[in-house]
Write a structure and sequence with these properties.
signal, 438 residues, DUF5723 domain-containing protein, Porin
């Protein structure tokens, strides 16, 4: 009965949000779906995406939190002339939930996730300046070599790391890219912009660029990817990131064994503190080298079994040396049982860094594209072997028109309240999202 009431509230939030959108003159979904040629030409080369979303989260020891959201996103890449290009990803969004009163200054946001310009003198060199989403990694569930993932999430919409990689706050950087024959080299600089609290550059009302999150330290980075013809199905990338007193080195490799079997791995080592010491500010800030690893295999079901169906299965092992080890689990369980805030600070830091809280975890992904007409189905799950806790998420994506689709997502956390994932407080969640793109 409680879940039924929560679902009704959940749908009510979504409907109420549309009403609020009218009050504040925010974009709402159009009454008709056909896209006119004039509208398409007006927006070209960019796309305008409207999103209506409703979600409900059931807590372990609390009532459900229901949320309704509406947003409009302008994104894409275009050419200013033969040499200059622009990259844009900006979003206007608002939301309501059943736990607080709606306040425009707090609940309307403009997120400038990317705004960058690039200049190419020829096919060999390209220079890029501005805010851009610099992504690294070949794994699915955890990307050790993805330097700038920390504190980049805009809002919670998915437990899938692959989704978060594609839609997050970019970093302001200057980057050079050299492409020649069988070699790719990129290098750049991310400045510390010293954004102050409650300002436009950080977290001011409505428009806050969040540069205090993405550009809070100077960093130099370089990445090299050779691809000689003799390597055939082998791909290798070597990368390095340098922050003051925290050098790091990483590598990504993937190998196609057959048409339907790919092995991959990424490794990263950095001078840093472990999660416990950094979160609690202990051990006088002493740092050492800590390793991270994500290795896996993706198997695509062959035509002899699945005919023309597009079905794949990925399995991965994740290792985070800076995370909690087995010998610390008894102390962790005791801290959670006693509501010790230190445990919450450690877990929050792992979430901010988007890295595993435990030293080891297993990840799996099952994807079936076009499983029914043009509908896609995916399932991910993560398990911590140390205590058996984890989460699963299932997503169904269904197109309802060439310019619109609906996405239904559900997730479940499992494990006792004093386990790695059970202590997160979440139990179940459901989300329904409608997309319309011009």
């Amino acid at each position: 009965m409680k879940q039924t009431r929560s679902l009704l509230t959940f749908m009510g939030c979504l409907l109420s949000l549309t009403v609020y959108a009218d009050d504040f003159e925010l974009p709402t979904l159009p009454d008709s779906v056909p896209t006119t040629e004039a509208t398409a030409n007006l927006l070209a080369p960019f796309n305008l995406e409207f999103k209506n979303q409703g979600m409900a989260n059931w807590r372990k020891h609390d009532s459900a939190i229901t949320t309704g959201r509406i947003s409009a996103r302008l994104y894409g890449q275009g050419s200013l002339d033969e040499s200059f290009n622009i990259e844009l990803n900006t979003r206007l969004r608002t939301q309501i939930n059943n736990r607080k009163n709606y306040q425009a200054q707090n609940d309307i946001r403009v997120d400038v996730q990317s705004l960058a310009f690039s200049y190419s003198t020829n096919s060999t060199w390209r220079w890029l300046a501005g805010r851009t989403n610099i992504r690294n990694g070949v794994a699915n569930g955890f990307n050790p070599t993805d330097w700038f993932k920390a504190n980049s999430q805009v809002i919670f919409e998915s437990l899938d790391a692959a989704d978060r990689r594609e839609d997050r706050l970019g970093v302001v950087a200057l980057e050079g890219i050299w492409l020649h024959a069988d070699n790719l080299l990129s290098f750049g600089y991310r400045p510390d912009l010293r954004a102050k609290p409650d300002t436009l550059t950080s977290d001011s009302d409505i428009v806050g660029l969040g540069l205090d999150r993405t550009n809070n330290r100077d960093a130099l980075f370089v990445k090299y990817a050779p691809s000689p013809d003799s390597w055939n199905n082998l791909s290798l990338t070597v990368s390095s990131l340098y922050q003051s007193n925290q050098p790091s080195l990483g590598a990504e490799v993937s190998l196609a064994m057959r048409d339907n079997l790919v092995l991959y791995s990424e490794w990263f080592v950095q001078r840093r503190q472990n999660l416990t010491n950094e979160a609690l500010n202990v051990n006088n800030g002493t740092m050492r080298l800590y390793h991270q690893l994500a290795s896996g295999v993706t198997w695509s079901v062959p035509e002899s079994i699945a005919s023309s169906e597009d079905i794949s299965l990925s399995v991965e092992f994740h290792f985070n040396e800076a995370g909690l080890k087995q010998s610390q689990m008894a102390s962790w369980r005791q801290a959670i049982t006693q509501n010790d805030t230190r445990a919450l600070r450690i877990a929050a830091l792992a979430g901010e860094k988007q890295e595993p809280l435990a030293r080891q975890q297993l990840f799996g992904r099952f994807a079936w594209n076009d499983f029914w007409d043009d509908n896609d189905l995916s399932l991910i799950t993560t398990v911590t072997p140390m205590d058996g806790s984890g989460f699963s998420q299932i997503t169904l994506s269904a197109p309802i028109h060439p310019t619109s689709r609906i996405e239904i997502t559900g997730y479940h956390y499992f494990g006792n309240s004093n386990t790695i994932y059970g202590s997160a407080g979440r139990k179940n969640g459901a989300m329904m999202t409608f997309f319309y793109t011009l």
